[in-house]
Amino acid sequence: MLLTRDGQWRTAATIADALGVTPRSVRSYVTALNARVPGGTAVESGPQGYRAGADATAALRAGTESSTPRDRLHSLVRMLLDADDGIDVFETADRLYVSPATIDADLARVRGLLGGTDLTLERSASRARLRGTEAAQRRLLSRLAHDEMEAGSFDLEVLRRTLGTQSIGAQAFGPFKSELVAGLGDLGYFVNELGIADVVMHIAIAADRVSRDRALEGGEPDGDAARAEISALIDRLSVAHFGMSLGAGDLAHLATLILTRIVAPGEGPADRARDRLDPEVERVVREVVEAAASEFLVDIAHEDFILRLALHVQNLRHRAREQAWSRNPLTRSLKSTYPMIFEVAVFIASGLADRLGIPLMDDEIAYIAMHVGGRLERSRRADELLTATIVCPGYYELHELLRSSVDRSLGQAVDVVGVETRADPDWAGIHTDLVLTTIDPPTPGERIVRIQPFLTDADVERVQAAAGRVRRGRRLARLRAELERYFSAGAFIRGLDGDADEEAVIRRLGGLLVADGVIDDDYVQRTIERERLSSTAFTDALAVPHALGMTATRTAIAIGIAEPSIRWGDGRVQVVAFTAFSESDRAAFQTVFEQFVEVFSERDSVQRIVRRGTDFAAFLDELVAVIDG
After folding, report:
1. Closest alpha carbon to 255 in 295, 228, 221
2. Residue 444: is the preceding peptide bond cis (ω within 30°)?
3. Domain range holding 617?
4. 3-state DSSP call for residue 565?
5. Is 593 in the same domain as 615?
6. Which of 146, 177, 414, 563 is deepest in the core (most CB within 10 A)?
7. Which CATH number does the domain housing residue 568 bear?
8. What digits encode the pLDDT tens for the residues 376-405?
9. pTM: predicted TM-score of the whole model, two decimal places
10. What is the pLDDT of residues 560-573, one digit of tens each?
11. What is the DSSP letter of 427?
């Protein structure tokens, strides 16, 4: 799974560091993965290390029932869920080809899965039983399915393996999903395609459990017209594709799931959407959004944004009551690519949790981040475009045609503010961000792009590439200027304790800034609380713990380097940057925070900085060198 994320070569040492194992273990894993696809290649090997092969996805799907401890654990849970009178430890050990002691150890791990499910594991002599409601058992099945689907990606064959090979075949769900989306559209709803796979998973679980005479109770009519029409749609599709009716309890549950998870009202007046909205939710969302806009200096306090987010939050309350959290397959990429947007979403999530009592997971925070990102994209200012001058010696209307072509093809990237039609322009007097020229300049430069009089696709690509370089260069130049102000030799540690958890590392690095008078112990505690909301490991190598609220006496960053890597959240990191921001540097927050993460998103740069940054001076030199390219 690690190799499939970026498709690049990785050495055994870097893979081992990311997984927290030895290079020898990595070689064993590669051998085992390739054995899953006889005649194929799950992992390629070469002088540069390893990378995902053509059959990587097939290998991930090809795990047998007990090929790994996780597979065996999931098989054991399925057996417990299917057996009303429980399982016999010795018979189960024989079935899974392991010892009774191994099954005893696995049962201890099962207890660890039961938190928040309202299920209990009872043990009497050699028999073990699960006790709890059908709804609680389904939540456990949902957890198993999510555990097998990396980063929220949906795979019906994997789901069938989770439910058991006797469950309804995956081929039934493709047509079911298509007709469900079409039917919801006919009823006047917009469908969230990112969430619908999760709903299909719940429908698959419901169909499997009903086929085993384990239907949900309840489902009496409540007079809700929307729930009734969606229930009728699911019932019709279930009979058509599964050959069964799911029953009133399951239909009511699934209709509620759809209403609160994957649909939004169609086009219509805002007042109609507001009629469905709890005034308390709208008030709280408005206050939290306005606070976020002020805290981060972002333009999100708009009525349309508040209304859409409030409708989303109202659905969140329903999901929270049922512990029916929505998965988001974009969580990882949103967090690493748009850390600033994700941070605004964490701030909003924290405010909602405090005022509405909604505990939010990373996937739910990612949906809020998508709302924030959408608003910021719509409100992006035109002055953020790069300016450009076209140099095109006059010949009839040639320069006018060229400008028209540039505006049409590159209007989202550059703003043409001048056209030079002389064959000998004053090159030194052109001060725009880019110069797009049809003639050779006397001296080439990073911002000068040679184009044809009649713009070609290759010209467009070159201009876009140059614009990207200019933007990145500016961002990193600002970052270098800021970082040189915020680092100090006294707030640098090389050799973080590999056994320390996040809280211990935060306290150790925060203590350096407390001793320097930058922050107090309360700031350190609030940083720990922020970390509990959502991991600050924004890349595979970097964590940036910080508090919500810019209350430091001055902005400062304490750096800790771990070699080998240390566990952080669900992954491992090699660099921890404890960041404390002051109120006076509020405007610099975005530059430092987002661009610092960008630098550490490049694996080669990280390895260079970690390997050569043996002390503070060397670390700063390498960081500046990487920024300068």
Report:
1. 228
2. no
3. 487-628
4. strand
5. yes
6. 414
7. 3.40.930.10
8. 876 554 446 789 999 998 776 788 889 899
9. 0.69
10. 999 888 999 888 89
11. G
